[in-house]
Amino acid sequence: MPKKDKAPKPLSDNVTVFNAISMGNLKLLKRIVEERGDSLNNVVDKYGDTPLKIAIINQRGDIIRYLVEAGADVNDNNNNYHERPLNLVFYSVNHDSRDDLLKYLIEHGADVNQGDGYGNTILISASGLPENLPLIRYLVEEAGADINHQNNDGVSPLIAACRSIDINNLPVIKYLVEHGADVNTPGPNNKTALNIIEDLLKRSVNPQYYQNIYNYLRSYPIQQRWKKSFPKVKKMVRNRVFLNEVAGFPQNVAKQISEQSVGFGKSRNRSSKLRSVDLDIFYLLK
């Protein structure tokens, strides 16, 4: 006769969901939940962490998915540090699997615009490093992250990006600005992103990097106004409507005019680099 499977031994009262998670024993965890009906949201350890958070800290991907599908709260922040599952994944999980796990939680209801106890969303946290740019794109373009959210100290994603110690973070700054980050919103000490870059420029050992950021933040609003006003400017220039000149107009705007085959009449105050434009054009772009 075939041998019958042995009935599992009764669970000891000392065996908890936290034991199973720490051991990475999904089978045992399922049994505990099914036999005892343990709540996945009300049972916490001494630090206030739920089973889901312990699974995240221990980087147990299969257990994380099981807990979420079994009803674990993906927005809980009731541990000692008021961390949410998204915050824990960002800081606790290896980079190779981190982004996939973040996307999984977001797809299962995790709110990207809820911060931790300090008000930090994962977009703010991610904005400090250039290697996070793919994640930043996902958060902004697909997950609905608020690009101007500020933490409890007034730090926004843009300010976090500007304060980064990584001197290759300009692509993140450009991405945020070009997708709606407000360069004029005051942050800590009532300073804007441009103010912060000015301060860093004065004391940095990498002045050229901060100079590039400074130039970009200053020129971007002008470029945007230029794009909106270009049809009018083009018509004025072609009709030689010149009333007065303004020196020092940004050369990137002059370059765009030049590329459109629009000419300015020569004068002793105009160089080949087109360093001045008509006052009417200037006021169109103000």
UniProtKB/TrEMBL annotation:
SUPFAM superfamilies: Ankyrin repeat. Keywords: ANK repeat, Repeat. It holds the Pfam family Ank_2. InterPro entries: Ankyrin_rpt (IPR002110), Ankyrin_rpt-contain_sf (IPR036770), Multifunctional_regulatory (IPR050745). This is Uncharacterized protein. It comes from viral metagenome.
